[in-house]
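User: Here's a chain of 456 residues. Predict its fold as tokens.
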Amino acid sequence: MNDARTDAGYMPAPAALPQSDVSAAVGIVGALGLVAWIVFCRNYASVSEFFDFSGPRAPMSGPHAALAAVLFSAGPMAAWSLLVDKVHRRPSTGIDWHQPREWGDDAGTSLVKIFGLWATWAMLGALYCLGRWYWQGQYLFAMDVLAFAAVPLVILSVPYVFWLDRVLVERRDHAWHFGALLLGRGGWDADEIKRHWRAWIIKGFFGAFMISILPGGFAEVVNADFTGITSDPVRIAYFLIGFLFVVDVQIGTVGYLVTMRPLDAHIRSGNPFLAGWVAALICYPPIVFTFMGGDGVLAYEVNTAGWAHWFEGQTALLWLWAGLLVSLTGIYAWATMAFGLRFSNLTYRGVLTNGPYRYAMHPAYLSKNLFWWLSTMPFIVTSGSIVDVVRNSFFLGCVSAIYFWRAKTEEAHLLREDSKYREYYHWMQENGLITAQLRALRRRLSAFQPALQPAE
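Assistant: Prediction complete.
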């Protein structure tokens, strides 16, 4: 039996970890830009008083300040990517800067592409109108932002497409194929149109969701009261967890909004597997409320009180548990930072091999699920009912299984797309903190198989 054979086919583990397509510094400078903006917003009352600005003398914690934070994250990341990493020079952008075409050369191709983009945005707008959940609660802010951005996007798309078409190696991209279909032109490819719509549905669905959750966490961090916090492990934990989630959300939002070829951050492909879409969409509104909400099928917090309640008065345990939860959230945020400008669900946008991905293939899913188990503690309930214990633990186990399912569908997608990911996959099988142990266990078990076979 050859234990190097996997579902991905045979490939010996490479001697060294493949180089990451995103440098670790990109996410770090984005996080530093975000922190600088948060500090400014927290101290805006003093700043406005010093410069005698008009308006209220109070911290800037409103939704527009949260939206501005995206710029303070995206700006440093884009600058580092272009000036230091020089990602715009990579062949993976599909751009050749050395032989630009004349302005307006083959303008018909550019116009077809623009028409395809405009038609796509119009159809996404229609889908937003049909989705009732987009017109209530936190999504109202996202709809306001997208409505405000619509006209500038339409106007700016014209010079952007004409400029980019001067240096693109292959000008007939996914948008062109969709535009050609709508205009009745020949040469369009159905597979290219499928790739186009997979990418835009991902951007449309998750982009609106990420924008909608920007204001809440940002306001909590900016308005946080630090009075007496140093002696309270629960308050420290909740603040740090909230702050780390803000880092995750802000940099994640940048990833969905900045999908541009000159930054080498474009979507190469969306996940082509239906199972991948099902597993991912279950975890987000509006579907998540049906499955994992308070009255959902997989509700796992029935009659639970959480870690702070059960360890109340146990100072050492509170500090220990607070440290564990903050560390897990830190790994989760670090995993998002590692993507830099390329974070998004269900997409292939290059291969990550640094940061927490140096040690585990799915650090975000692993840390998130461990956080839920340790913070919720579904195995202890206020009702004293063993039925609640079994139900809560079973259903949280189901949630963890869904994330395992997501991980495997993502692996299948990336294994199909990139030879570098296949090298990374096989390297992790032998060297990852978890996968290497599982591989060693399978080897030990396989050694016993001949002894267990019945004698002929």
